[in-house]
Amino acid sequence: MGTIQQGKFTGMPLTRLGRWAAGMGVLFVVMFLLKTNIPIPVPAMFVMAIGIIAGILVLVALIWKRERSWLLWLMLIPGLFAILFTLGELLYPH
Hints:
Elements: H1 16-37, H2 44-63, H3 70-91
Helix pairs in contact: 1-2, 1-3, 2-3
């Protein structure tokens, strides 16, 4: 087994913003899975707000800070899901 390369796709996020983005993304995924499977006393709007913040942080870290970590690319998927889901609910409420 080799060492984790820093600053490459296979490494972890290098910047503080990148680590925050990855942490918020993981927190959103865990809270979303808990909220959908177990009735926890956390408002769904709070969970989606965490997802939106995570999605924005990931996009900023990837574009502005030029992070290339696999973890941020992976956390981009649930972050964009939260952003698009919320936009869909705001534009076409039911």
